[in-house]
Every structure is written in C-alpha cells, then in structure tokens.
C-alpha cells in the first residue's frame, strides 16, 4: 500500500478475477481454504472467479505470459510469495508488458512464506495475525476493491538473465535455506526452521564479488561561508 494521499484505483462491479492457485503451497490446504474462506466472501462482493490450479513449477509463469488477459479485471494469487514471483516475471516477459502490468494484482496467503500478504495486512491497519485470520483480512481487502501502485526491483545477472522482485533478492545462506527446505513443504512455515538448522550444520562457504556505484554527493545551491561551523 502507498502512503495516505496517494491515488487509488477501484475494481469494477461486477468483477471477474483470474485466481492462480498452487494446491501444494504451504501445508497443501490452499485449494480447501480458497473454497471454504475466500470464495463465499468474493461472491458476496460480486467478484466472479476463474480458478487456474497450477500443476508444476513455472505453470503460472507460462499462463500469464501467453494468455489473453483482457477477459479478467484482476489477477489473484492464492499461494505464497513464490507464485506471485512467477506471475510478475511472466507478465514482464509479455510483448505488451507495459499494459499487462497495469492489471491489478492481489496476493492471498496460502503458502509457507507470506511476507507480502503480511505486509499489506500491516499497512492496512490490521493487527498482526497469521493463517486463516490473515487470509480473511487479505480477502476482505480484495473485496473492497482498492488498489494502488507498487515498486518492483530489477536484477540482471552476469549470464544475461533478468528478474523482477516485489520484496528483495537473496544470495547465499538465506537462499539455500529457502531452496533446500522445499522438500519439507508439508511442514508449513516450520520448513524454514528445519532448513536453517541443516544449512548451519553444513557450514557452506560462499564466494562472490559485490559491485556498486558510489552515491554522488549532492551539490549545494548556495555554498556555506568558509567560517561557518560544520553541522
């Protein structure tokens, strides 16, 4: 969400949403939770849904990259942060990416890591909650239909690949924990604790080079007198 005073768009009513759902995310209850919690709330808000259940990695990426999106008013991701990452990067690979990225996106927490959903919940003024309560809060935000712009981070690798992120990029230990704990997805958020312990036991060494551009010093429009005290 943006600071108070920024402009907001409003979803039309009736509204048609494409829901991209990973049934394996989190503890594997995303589809059940969508049908039990989300769908009844959206029906009351006059939001019709087309549910696309992913069957493999990058399935959502390919869907939004190749599909005609004009039939939907918004794209809803019911999963963790990983599926939204797929969707954002799929949209950015489209020839019409400038227009495609204007399509409102919504995240509904259904994964092990739900950092963006939790952040939106916080900035919307709700108490810190998790699981079903967080899902209910985020669904209510979708039902209200307000949306605004969000910044993306762009990263280009030495191999020529380009990625876009809405949270941040990680390399080294944190990334290894995320990747190595994939096989424990059935544990829910506890997978990260187990993955951290395993990575600590391995004590891997990471070698890399960090390059950066120095920040240019701001030029003062009116130089201070030479005898003026330093701030």
Tell me what you see in this structure.
The protein is α/β, with parallel strands linked by helices and 231 residues long. It folds into two domains: 9-155, Probable inorganic polyphosphate/atp-NAD kinase, domain 1 (Rossmann fold, 3-Layer(aba) Sandwich), CATH 3.40.50; 170-205, no CATH class. It is built from eight helices and eight strands. The protein has helices at 30-44, 59-66, 81-92, 97-100, 115-123, 131-144, 173-180, 190-202; strands at 9-10, 15-21, 47-53, 74-79, 105-109, 146-147, 153-156, 162-165. The chain has a four-stranded parallel sheet, with helices on both faces. A two-stranded antiparallel ribbon has the order 1-6. Strand 7 (153-156) and strand 8 (162-165) form a beta hairpin. Helix 1 (30-44) packs parallel to helix 6 (131-144) and helix 5 packs across helix 6. The chain is globular and about 55 Å long. It starts with 8 loop residues before the first strand and ends in a 29-residue tail after the last helix. Residues 1-5 and 219-231 have low confidence and may be disordered. It is found in: Endomembrane system. Residues 12-159 form the DAGKc domain. One of its GO terms (cellular component) is endomembrane system. Pfam families: DAGK_cat. It comes from Quiscalus mexicanus.
Question: How many strands appear in the DSSP assignment?
Answer: 8
Which of globular, elongated, flat, extended, rod-shaped describes the shape? globular
Largest sheet: 4 strands, parallel
* SS content category: alpha/beta
The name of the CATH superfamily of the largest domain reads Probable inorganic polyphosphate/atp-NAD kinase, domain 1
Mind telling me the C-alpha Rg?
A: 21 Å
CATH topology of the largest domain: Rossmann fold
Summarize the amount of helix as a percent range.
25-40%
CATH class call of the largest domain: Alpha Beta
Order of helices and strands: EEHEHEHHEHHEEEHH
Q: Give the averaged pLDDT, no decimals.
A: 85
From the N-terminal CA to the C-terminal CA, the straight-line distance is 36 Å
Query: Architecture of the largest domain, CATH level 2?
Result: 3-Layer(aba) Sandwich
């Amino acid at each position: 969400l943006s600071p108070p005073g920024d402009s907001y768009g409003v979803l039309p009513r009736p509204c048609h949403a494409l829901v991209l759902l990973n049934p394996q995310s989190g503890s594997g209850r995303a589809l059940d939770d969508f049908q039990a919690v989300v769908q009844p709330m959206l029906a009351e808000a006059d939001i019709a849904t087309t549910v696309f259940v992913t069957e493999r990695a990058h399935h959502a990426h390919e869907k939004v990259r190749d599909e005609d999106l004009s039939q939907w008013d918004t794209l809803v991701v019911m999963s963790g942060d990983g599926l939204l990452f797929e969707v954002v990067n799929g949209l950015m690979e489209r020839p019409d990416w400038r227009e495609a990225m204007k399509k409102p996106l919504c995240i509904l927490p259904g994964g092990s890591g739900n950092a963006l959903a939790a952040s939106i919940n916080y900035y919307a003024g709700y108490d810190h909650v998790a699981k079903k309560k967080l899902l209910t809060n985020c669904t209510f935000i979708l039902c209200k239909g307000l949306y605004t712009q969000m910044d993306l981070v762009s990263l280009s690798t030495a191999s020529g690949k380009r990625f876009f992120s809405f949270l941040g990029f990680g390399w080294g230990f944190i990334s290894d924990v995320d990747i190595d704990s994939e096989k424990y997805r059935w544990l829910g958020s506890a997978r990260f604790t187990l993955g951290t312990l395993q990575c600590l036991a391995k004590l891997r060494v990471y070698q890399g080079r960090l390059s950066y551009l120095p920040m240019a010093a701001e030029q003062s429009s009116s130089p201070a007198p030479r005898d003026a005290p330093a701030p």
